[in-house]
Amino acid sequence: MKETDILVVGGGPAGLCAAIEAARAGARVLIIDDGLRLGGQLIKQTHKFFGSKDEYAGTRGFKIADVLLSELERYGDRVEAITNTTVTGYYTDDGVFGALTGEERYFKVKPKRAIIATGAYEKTIPVPNCDLPGVYGAGAVQTLMNVYGVKPGEKALMVGAGNIGLIISYQLAQAGVQVQAVVEAMPKIGGYLVHASKIRRIGIPIYTSHTIKEIHGKEHVEGATIVQIDERWEPISGTEKYIEADLICLAVGLSPLIELLWQAGCKMRYVPELGGYVPVRNREMRTSHPDFYVAGDAAAIEEASTAMIEGRIAGLCAAASLGYRPPDYEERLEGFWAQLERLRRGPVTEKIRQGLPKAMKEE
Questions:
Q1: Residues 6+ apart with CB under 8 A from 280
Q2: How far is CA 156 from the centre of its chain?
Q3: Among 25, 44, 284, CA closest to 144
Q4: In sequence order, what DSSP letters do the residues of 19-83 get, joined into one string?
């Protein structure tokens, strides 16, 4: 049994920032992450971030991970991190978490507070032959290329024109993969125009109001049929188009990874604008369970920049609830919320602005 003030489940951008703020305030923090190293999605991201200096604008994702880890190291023994470890469950009768390192070492953790920063899992599309070798989620493609240096295919079809699909399409092209097309079911792209412009400039076509109908191949992916869809999402007969590819990359959205919050009995609401079921929380990122806080994609599917700020709010407030309240607590909390409001301006984040009030609990 390990005991700590605050357990942070997830060592991605939200979890790292939560740990930094909690340790800065004086709390003892334990981070548990299932990856081989801390950083989460940041270690896969080679593109530069937007925003302002406070959100590391102009810095590549994997460099931001290095910055956060260096910041965390300042607090020495106050922070412990355990990697290659899955938090397997939460036991409501005694407030204990179970954790498994690799497949060998099982242990328990009893924290005073928990910050759930588990991120999200990738959605898929159940089309014929979607189980063939060569069909990947976008995160897997990023891991292969940017973490392990593996070229995942020669000819790729990207399904999804959100930021993830657009960015990875460009990264595939940089790695020498011929991106045949990007397919998007919506009538317009969902990602930033700057990312779409980059891939259009290098000759990658984007088919909006299209979806993948079938994947072809025997032992592995050999191609796919795409089709145009109408406003009712019905295929338009005669618009089928065959695209040769040995790699199908699915970037069709994320869903919050919130099993631990369900287990803890936290109040949940289905908010489609935020990605599905999300925990109800207040301005401190505290859920209906007084010992549980949430941050990042587990709270709502957004960008890494907002995840980092939410993590800082959760870490600051969780520590304060245990008596580790810094003199500048109110100033820092209001400052973080001001940053979030700046990041959530504009047409791209309109859905987030619509969904967030539905997930906030009444004080």
A1: 266, 267, 268, 269, 287, 288, 359, 360, 361
A2: 23
A3: 44
A4: HHHHHHHT--EEEE-SSSSTTGGGGG--SBP-S-GGGTTT-BHHHHHHHHHHHHHTTGGGEEEE-
pLDDT confidence band for 104 (50 / 70 / 90):
confident
**Predicted confidence (pLDDT) at residue 362 exceeds the cutoff of 80:** no
Dihedral, CA of residue 279, residue 280, residue 282 and residue 284, to nearest 10 = -10
pLDDT digits (tens, 9 = 90+) for 36-95: 999 998 988 877 786 666 778 778 888 999 999 999 999 999 999 999 999 999 999 999
CB 159 within 8 A of CB 249: yes
Rounded-to-integer distance, Cα 70 and Cα 126, Å: 42
Give the pLDDT score at 363. 55
d(Cα 75, Cα 90) in Å, to the nearest integer?
A: 27
SS3 87: strand
Q: What's the pLDDT at 50?
A: 67
The whole-chain average pLDDT of the chain stands at 94
φ/ψ (deg, to 5) at 114: -130, 135
Rounded to whole angstroms, the Cα distance separating 6 from 315 reads: 9
